[in-house]
Amino acid sequence: MSEDEFILVNRRRRRKKFEQVFREQLLLTECNEIEIDKETIVRKLFDAVPKLRYSVFKTHILHNISKALKILNVNKIFEIICYGLGQFSQHNSSKYQLALLLLLKRHYNCQVSLYDPAFLAKEIEILKELKLNVIETNEEGKHTISNNVTFIYMPHCPRQLINNFLYSNWNENLSNCILLTNSFSDIVEKSLKWHLMKFANYVLRIYPYMTEIKLKNDFKYTEVFSTTSIHIFTKQSLRRSSTMNSNVKIIRALAQELRHISLSEKLKDNITMQYILEQAYSHKETSEVLCKAQKELKNLAETYLCYLISQRKYKEIKMQYTGKGERSIKETADLVGFKLPHDPK
To answer: What pTM did the predictor assign?
Structure first.
């Protein structure tokens, strides 16, 4: 293929991409200009509420939320945050998801805040008339949980949005959260690993430490709450997560140092690395209580890591100054990363 032909193909691709973006923007503009009858939408919404109120599904979901509260050893939900509800004036699923939100607000008698960039102007008016707090700015799912128990309602949301929420609350405050969204089990088990690493890394990382309560999809319209689960994160599991992440960092650092001293062989064939991985696996935490042996092994690994780094630094210094005579105190300090008290830098 000649250079001119290659350029021509690229231009065609760029034009197609531009046309696709333009069509999406045009569609979004047209959606925002949709005229809706508020009274009709409110009437349809109020027709949907009793269908949920007297359904087996509503009883089932309240039972499972109570179960989650019991596991977390708390008895009250203080706030509900909702993302990704969609245009409830246009979509049946969004209408019933909003109906459930209203029932949860009434049942737990708490404030409800919600946001979706797709909301139409008149939909926002309806939400405010229903005494719901419409968030003004696009938080991209990055709401930070307080010390009070918060119910996060994200039905059928993109995994990137769920990932953003986890990222913003990557600490023990996650134990104050009850998350109703797409099943983490389905996300992890039915997705390619590379796709999870790129778009749902925090979902993948928290997956071994979360508790998932599956919801029986027995509502009349099965598409409304399909593949939806309740997820909670106990303090004990979050401590385990923190410990395991710390151990992984140490193992990666050891691997990096061992690469410097085993250039002639593959790292996986290095006997020392094999032993480290074998010990890490055999002492992997299997209960909520950290065992003494695991702590001792971690201390030993950190000590060995310090030794390897020192050995490497020593060799670097020796190679750099062999045959160059004595070096100054400042040169030595710079080599080991030590800042002298009188150093103005």
So the answer is: 0.64
